[in-house]
Amino acid sequence: MDKHDVLPIGEIVQRSGFAASALRFYESEGLIEAMRSGGGQRRYQRSVLRRLAFIRAASNVGLTLEEIKDELSRLPSNRTPTKSDWHRISQHWRGRLDEQIVALERLKTGLESCIGCGCLSLQRCAFSNPGDWVASSDSAPGAGLLPDSLRKPHPTRR
Amino acid sequence: MDKHDVLPIGEIVQRSGFAASALRFYESEGLIEAMRSGGGQRRYQRSVLRRLAFIRAASNVGLTLEEIKDELSRLPSNRTPTKSDWHRISQHWRGRLDEQIVALERLKTGLESCIGCGCLSLQRCAFSNPGDWVASSDSAPGAGLLPDSLRKPHPTRR
DNA sequence: CCTTGAACTCAAGTTAACTTCAACTTGAAT
DNA sequence: ATTCAAGTTGAAGTTAACTTGAGTTCAAGG
């Protein structure tokens, strides 16, 4: 039990779906670890696959690598996460997703209410109001708008 | 009726909530236009405010500047958009928002179904599956995952 | 031994959407 | 006439999350 306990990077690429360059990058950022072969090539433990799955899931939820790193480090040191670890985390992520959904729905509602008025006059359209206008009258109709956590996709990604 | 028909950049900054640098940038990208004073300073027509409101709203919906530029150019040349223009556009935006909401909800559902299994085993967890796995079995449970249009916020903003 | 495909490193490039900076110039008010 | 806030330009910087490229080395099969 030696040869099959570690996997070369190509294998990890296959099984995880991440590019080799991404794996090296994650390693450089301290998200994953690797041992080295005699000649200096990376040899991964099987557990890195679970870690990578976690990374992908978290990233789908919209966490930054920084945040993901934090969560990974909070996962009681490298043992397999228990069901309660997983439950705690999923609650957190659920919250994130809910926030995002609510924000989008608020936006949609604003949009709908604008169809009637044909406005975009910048006068009192909640949909197009810049942040400070909205902030000024606290209980405004379309108050809030997009939270910081809802901005455009990153172009690099697949 | 001359002095009050054009506005200096500072005024536009106040009224639109965009930074002066953003306004110059938008101009360089052809999203807005400006006349010049004798000495070369920008003088904006009032209508630019409506355009800027449109830009902000579209950007809140998640359109790229490129897309916004397209939509602006499709708005029957610079006249005030009619109610039907606005209706057509808002339908488009609504579609975008709906897509995004659906994607997030699919993700949330996947997350929920994962709580029970405590998985992230990379074996068959729809939530953490990389794209190609999902693509391979077409009618998979959590199929689809995040569309390209749903990736992280851009840090620069506000 | 030789050949090749797989891997390595490190620096630099990519993308969007702006911002910052340095070094002036304008223009409205006193 | 002076002043100074407000405006101008063009180039370079910022951020996240990686990718690309150049030049070199590893490792496994024949």
How would you describe this structure to a colleague?
The structure is a homodimer of 158-residue chains. Chain A has helices at residues 9-16, 20-28, 47-61, 65-74, 83-117, 131-136, and strands at 6-8, 35-36, 42-45. Chain A has a single domain (3-150), classed as Orthogonal Bundle (Multidrug-efflux Transporter Regulator, Chain: A, Domain 2). Chain A starts with 5 loop residues before the first strand and ends in a 22-residue tail after the last helix. In chain A, strands 1-3-2 form a 3-stranded antiparallel sheet. The longest helix of chain A has 35 residues, at 83-117. The first copy, chain A, is elongated and about 65 Å long. The first copy, chain A, is mainly alpha-helical. In chain A, 53% of the residues lie in helices and 6% in strands. At the A-B interface, helix 3, helix 5 and helix 6 of A face helix 3, helix 5 and helix 6 of B. The first copy, chain A, binds a DNA duplex (30 and 30 nucleotides) through residues 8-10, 19-22, 24-25, 29, 37-42, 59, 64-66, 152, 154-157.
Write out key terms for the chains shown.
homodimer, 158 residues, mainly alpha, Multidrug-efflux Transporter Regulator, Chain: A, Domain 2, three-stranded antiparallel beta sheet, 53% helix, 6% strand, DNA-binding, metal-binding (chains A, B)
Layout of helices and strands:
The structure is a homodimer of 158-residue chains.
Chain A: E1 6-8, H1 9-16, H2 20-28, E2 35-36, E3 42-45, H3 47-61, H4 65-74, H5 83-117, H6 131-136
Antiparallel strand pairs in A: 1-3, 2-3
Chain A binds a DNA duplex (30 and 30 nucleotides) through residues 8-10, 19-22, 24-25, 29, 37-42, 59, 64-66, 152, 154-157.
